[in-house]
Amino acid sequence: MKKPPQDLSQLLHQQGSFPSIAEKAELLMHLDCYVKHVLTGPVSQQLKVANLRQGVLVIETTTAAWAARINFQKAKILQQLQAETLPMLSAIEVKVNPGLFLYATKPKINHNEISKTAAEHIEALAEHTEGSLGLKLKRLAALASRPRKT
Questions:
Q1: How far apart are CA 85 and CA 98, in angstroms?
Q2: CA dihedral (117, 122, 123, 125) positive or negative
Q3: Which residues have C-beta within 8 Å of that of residue 49, sequence separation ≥ 6?
């Protein structure tokens, strides 16, 4: 009898050095959200907390202009992080990484929409087509009248 598969999160927290890696990843995700909350506005969309090593928080951004804006607010970020989250934090380092958002997830575009004009043409074609193809064309034309999700 085979063993049932184990949950990946359980495996990460049980074996070897994985627990420390998982903890650091969770800490970096938490810090990323926190820094983005502290820095409101468009600058929060242009940065990512990359690392925390020896009391230095490393923040990456896409351009030197954004890095300059973050550097102006570095003292504020450092003070809030020391007071609320990381008292052992000693400095913040801002680095430029142009490829940072090269592979960022983009919202998926729904291509399953049919315009009214296309639906009318498909419906007219379905009127002159017999059998299962005619039925399928009518169902396809009906997609245009279905309420769309935004």
A1: 29
A2: positive
A3: 28, 31, 32, 35, 57, 58, 59, 60
The CATH number of 10-96 is: 3.30.300.180
Residue pair 22/10 in contact by the 8 Å Cβ criterion: no
Q: Where are the beta strands (DSSP E) in the chain?
A: 47-53, 56-61, 91-96
Residuewise pLDDT in 10s, the chain (150 residues): 688 887 776 766 666 666 777 788 889 999 999 999 888 788 888 899 999 999 999 999 989 999 999 999 999 999 999 998 889 999 999 999 988 777 655 566 666 678 888 888 999 998 998 889 989 998 888 877 776 655
Residue appearing with tokens 């934090």 = 89
